[in-house]
Amino acid sequence: MAKTLDVLVVGSVNLDLSAKVARLPQPGETISGAVLKRFPGGKGANQALAARRLGAEVTLVAAVGEDGNADEALALLQQADVDLGALQRLPGVPTGLAMIAVTPEGENQIVVAPGANTKLRTPDDGFPAADLVISQLETPGAVLEDVVKHCAGFVCVNLAPAKEVDVSVLTRADLIVVNESEADWYGQSLSAARGFVATTYGARGAKLYHGETLIAETEPPAVDAVDTTGAGDTFTAALALQLASGVAGPNALTFACAAGALATTRRGAQPSLPTAREVRTLLAR
Ligand code: RIB
Is 227 one of the catalytic residues? Predict the structure, then answer.
């Protein structure tokens, strides 16, 4: 990347309670024998740290409670010097929690108790200026609408988890990222998008469209996946950084797929986020 980008991420912070299980439970079933670990997570925080590890200067606007889980959830962001000056620490609400089951093949199932994330508000003095703004759907829709209305620069919206969004989000975003099931959920409404649209297919790769025109299709490099949590967040941050830096669609997609693949090779969302050097080394293999 030629210039260091200033990135603003507006989104969620969670503490992930991640249980390694032999297989995912069926409805009504109890599965025992899990090995539990706690990791910092949340789509906003994951995308912020992914962008930071890939070389950007990053500010995160997010909301947490005043509980001990907040400190645990923010630890890796603080270590990486993500700017948390605009963080909203809210009394009387818990920090977001995600309960995650992960199989030996790395497949997961996630239930989120969003807590403080639902109370995020647009800062009184507005959003800090940035070259690139990234947001998702784990925080209030009104805040996202303010982001797309007031933020200049390249805007990336990860439509995850799928829910109704104002059409202004689709028309303003320079990049929209969805996974396969989110793409199905939004269906034809995605045709309102005016910029890039990336669809991810897990280990099968990703496609990049501009409007409705397919401009690139890539399979990720083969890796030994142990946990796919955070792979989509890594892909989103990497693709947004590449496109906002002016990298051509096909090269940007190849880089983002490799970054996402690397994020599956270690347990947990944030401990697995790769650096730009690790991505380049994988691509040169
Ligand atoms: O995208 C993965 C993230 O989704 C997890 O870290 C979890 O917190 C949920 O927000």
Answer: no
Burial of 188 from C-beta contacts in 10 A (0-12 / 13-18 / 19+): exposed
For residue 165, is it within any domain?
A: yes
For 195, the domain range is 6-24+35-284
Query: How many domains does the structure of the chain reveal?
Result: 1
pLDDT, one tens digit for every residue, the chain (285 residues)? 468 999 999 999 999 999 999 999 999 999 999 999 999 999 999 999 999 999 999 999 999 999 999 999 999 999 999 999 999 999 999 999 999 999 998 889 999 999 999 999 999 999 999 999 999 999 999 999 999 999 999 999 999 999 999 999 999 999 999 999 999 999 999 999 999 999 999 999 999 999 889 999 999 999 999 999 999 999 999 999 999 999 999 999 999 999 999 999 999 999 999 999 999 999 998
Nearest to 253 by CA among 275, 220, 213, 229: 220
Q: Is the CB of 16 under 6 A from ligand 1?
A: yes
Using a 6 Å cutoff on CB, does residue 46 contact ligand 1?
yes
* 54, two tokens: 């890939």
Domain presence at residue 113? yes
Q: Is 42 close to ligand 1, i.e. is its CB under 6 Å away? A: yes
Of the residues 16, 131, 174, 233, which is catalytic?
A: 233
- What is the CATH number for 139? 3.40.1190.20
Q: Is 230's C-beta closer than 6 angstroms to any atom of ligand 1?
A: yes
The answer to whether residue 146 is domain-embedded is yes
- Ligand 1 center to 254 CA (angstroms): 23
* Mutate-to-test residue for ligand 1 from 17, 233, 235, highest number of ligand atoms within 8 A of CB: 233
- Tell me if 267 sits within 8 A of 223, measured CB to CB: no
Does 144 contact ligand 1 (Cβ within 6 A)? no
Looking at the CA of residue 45, tell me the nearest atom of ligand 1.
6
Residue type, 139: T
- The 3-class SS string of 42-69 reads CHHHHHHHHHHHCCCEEEEECEEECCHH
**Residue 192: inside a domain, yes or no?**
yes
